[in-house]
Design goal:
The chain is of the alpha/beta class and about 550 residues long. It has two domains: about 5-15 and about 25-250, no CATH class; about 365-530, no CATH class. It has helices at about 30-40, 50-55, 60-65, 90-100, 115-120, 120-125, 175-195, 210-215, 240-250, 270-275, 310-320, 335, 350-365, 410, 420-435, 450, 465-475, 510-520; strands at about 50, 105, 130-135, 200-205, 230-235, 290, 295, 325-330, 365-370, 400-405, 440-445, 490-495. Helix 10 (about 270-275) crosses helix 13 (about 350-365) and helix 17 (about 465-475) runs parallel beside helix 18. The longest helix has 20 residues, at about 175-195.
Length: about 550
């Protein structure tokens, strides 16, 4: 079935023969929903963020040769701009759809800068529903690393375009004063154009100090209520600037916490109580890592710091509003939704505290970095989590997934002539005494110094070293044999370097793992069949 071109719906225009005055446009006789679908099929709504500065210059070699912007070679899809000139009715419909159902980004640094917003008519601005404005961007083109390598909760990355960075904006500089003045004019125009509850506005202006940062939200107070907003005032985290960004967004969106009416939660059966609590912040999105200094709770942000859902090509345009990595605020960032341990749930009353304890320890996966130093609680007992002041013994029975990560320094405690590690022995004893072994999945990951230096092809092990490490492994796992009735037991020995694409273990560590697991679980125990997973799957 062939598809007719959209031009067939319009009167035929010819320079040789004028169109009759009585000619009819059959397209306008179609129902609006049909016309709307045709506009979509013609490509009026791209589904991607449109960079307003660069779309109009996509065919200009002058701008394509510039080195300061990463999107100079981007291929923007052709838009059916000829539709805007058909007639007034089609123009009004296409304008409403184009500006209302696409999302737009404007950058001060790109060609024509923020002047684009100043040149728009108020009627056009009123149609825009989603707008991203980069007033001053100190971050990398593609991600959020900044001029140097940095971390904001979304990973490390090197800057690939150093010349694209803005310097932090200061109100004391001439350029900074000009930018602030222009921003004030734009806000005045937006306040006259934007309809209440329509616009989603996302702004990045990386400032040098708090005083400059305060000058960016100030003109925004004249805007009507926004449908959604996000604001970033500094590339690096600053508590005061972050608080300013948060308060501004809450005020612009007229956000207020929704207080639920009282509910007789404790009258529910306990099984339902526990099921409900699993949907709260008690259950982290990732493993909870415990080391000698702190408990790292829910460090991952599934949204990647973006203020709106995006596809890969759009991520670079949307930039990062990570709540913990920048002086920024967006409702989508999980670092805002789940900022730290949900201690308030434990303070309601004793019954809810007990239920919350069972959910927290029973539904999360704990990763413990073992330390060579003994950590004792106030009562003098060895803590199962070295470095933490106190670990409730009554909660140990709820733990279902526990992984110990033992570094080379800890392994030395089991070497020839060394006393066996006190922390490890006391930890296993504590687990044996208070843990519910029938539901516990226990995993041990060990790191050898030799294999921490490089891949197997670079490491040069010898028979003496192999035998010595095997003896250390057996001494370390031997106390675990006292944990009778474990649900599962897994061992990983530097697994990321122990195999190649063909699947053969270069030094036999897979066989060693099986041997250690059978020491605890019995002969014939199949760890892979019981749920053991690859740390790094190199088997191709």
């Amino acid at each position: 079935m062939s598809q007719q071109r959209i031009t067939l719906f319009f009167p035929v225009l010819s320079t040789k023969k004028k169109t009759s005055v009585t000619a009819k446009c059959h397209f306008l006789q179609l129902p609006y929903l049909f016309r709307r679908r045709i506009y979509y099929e013609a490509g009026l709504v791209s589904g991607k963020t449109i960079h307003m500065n660069l779309w109009a210059t996509r065919g200009n070699p002058k701008y394509n040769e510039q080195e300061f912007h990463p999107y100079r070679n981007s291929r923007f899809a052709a838009l059916p701009l000829s539709l805007f000139a058909v007639c007034r009715m089609v123009h009004d419909e296409t304008t409403k759809i184009f500006y209302g159902e696409n999302r737009f980004a404007v950058s001060r640094r790109a060609p024509r800068g923020l002047r684009i917003l100043e040149r728009f008519s108020e009627s056009t601005l009123a149609e825009i529903k989603l707008l991203i404005v980069w007033i001053n961007l100190e971050s990398c083109d593609s991600l959020c690393c900044g001029h140097r390598e940095r971390k904001c909760g979304n990973g490390y990355v090197h800057c690939s375009h150093p010349l694209s960075h803005d310097e932090p904006m200061s109100h004391t500089s001439i350029s900074g004063q000009a930018i602030i003045s222009q921003w004030q004019r734009i806000c005045v125009k937006l306040s006259r154009s934007v309809l209440p509850g329509q616009l989603k506005l996302y702004i990045i202006c990386d400032c040098e100090d708090l005083r400059t940062a305060k000058m960016i939200p100030e003109p925004l107070t004249t805007l009507p209520i926004l449908r959604d907003a996000a604001l970033r005032l500094r590339r690096d985290y600053d508590e005061q600037a972050q608080g300013l960004a948060e308060n501004t967004v809450l005020r612009l969106t007229n956000w207020s916490p929704k207080l639920a009416p009282p509910f007789r939660f404790l009258d529910l059966p306990k099984e339902i109580q526990l099921h409900i609590l699993k949907y709260t912040d008690l259950v982290a999105d990732t493993e909870i890592t415990c080391n000698s200094n702190q408990m790292v709770y829910n460090i991952a942000c599934p949204t990647g710091g973006t203020a709106i859902p995006s596809t890969d090509p759009d991520t670079a345009l949307l930039k990062c509003f990570c709540y913990s990595g920048h002086s920024a605020f967006t409702f989508r960032c999980h670092h805002y939704k789940r900022l730290g341990f949900p201690s308030a749930i434990f303070l309601v009353n004793r019954k809810i505290r007990d239920a919350a304890t069972e959910v927290f320890y029973g539904s999360n996966s704990f990763v413990v970095s073992m330390s060579s130093k003994t950590s004792r609680s106030i009562g003098g007992d060895i803590s199962i989590l070295p470095g933490l002041k106190r670990f409730p013994k009554y909660a140990i029975r709820f733990i279902t997934t526990l992984r110990f990560e033992i570094d080379p320094l800890e392994l030395r405690m089991f070497g020839p002539g060394a006393a066996r590690g006190e922390v490890w022995l006391d930890t296993v004893e504590l687990l044996s005494k208070y843990g519910n072994l029938a539901v516990l999945n226990l995993e041990i990951r060990l790191a050898e110094e030799l294999y921490a230096l490089g891949r197997d092809t670079q490491a040069k092990a010898n028979t003496n070293y192999t035998n010595r490490m095997l003896d250390i492994y057996q001494k370390l796992v031997q106390p675990v044999t006292a944990l009778l009735g474990l649900r599962n037991f897994f061992v990983h020995l530097n697994w990321g370097t122990s195999c190649i694409g063909s699947g053969q273990a270069l030094d036999g560590r897979e066989q060693v793992e099986r041997r250690l697991e059978e020491m605890v679980m019995g002969e014939g125990y199949d760890a892979w069949g019981r749920g053991k997973v690859w740390r790094i799957d190199l088997r191709g």
